[in-house]
Amino acid sequence: MKILDCTLRDGGYYTNWDFDSEFVSEYFQSMEKLPIEYVEIGYRSVPQKEYCGEYFFCPAYVLQKAKTLMPHKKLAIMLNEKDTCMEDIDRLLGVCQGYIDMVRMAVSPVNIERAMEITREIKKHGFKTALNVMYLSQWAKDDMVHSRFKQANDSVDYFYMVDSFGGILPKEVETLTRTLKKILTCKIGFHGHNNTELAFANALAAIEGGADIIDATITGIGRGAGNLKTELLLVYLSSKGGVD
Length: 244
Prior knowledge:
With 244 residues, the protein is α/β, with parallel strands linked by helices. The protein has helices at residues 7-11, 21-33, 60-69, 89-93, 112-124, 136-139, 143-149, 170-183, 199-209, 230-239, and strands at residues 2-5, 38-43, 74-80, 102-107, 128-133, 158-163, 187-192, 213-216. Helix 8 runs parallel beside helix 9 (199-209).
């Protein structure tokens, strides 16, 4: 079971992606020591009208710091599909070469075909790719949506179920994970939110259904009611022999 920690990216919704430099250094050093596969250090984005801090843009010096303090970790960044055009790819990802291993894209299920076009282009640049398909509790029972997901097999390395509203139940998560495992050859991930205090239970259901990677954040910090706690998931998996 792989873990991706997205504390700075998802936690940035509470700080406008501004974080104290010493805090970030301590966080990176801690991540380096933990059995975590990927660390997502923030968004990469074109300029925005409103103020956003450095972990919304992840300039070169942020990437360099992350790689220096976490030399053995795979690093990831996130793109927003709604803010990303094909012509933006070179300027967004050129600086990421040599630092970033995986580029993820957050997308509404209604825009998934467009997102797949972009991720196919990103793969040409040598990055692993992931689609974080939002609003899971809304599309989970829509078979028409599921049929469109098959195109992801040649577009991404990871396909994420994102419970944006924290509104899905564990049994639904397990069933959907098993369904996706039948139609997708790429890896399956789960990103849960904690609006109904089910992020942990839903993550375990995803694991039971065959998910390959789970997102989490330190103390559960994240948008809305927060995320699955990294420390909780680590303790549980360690007790089951799932991590070292």
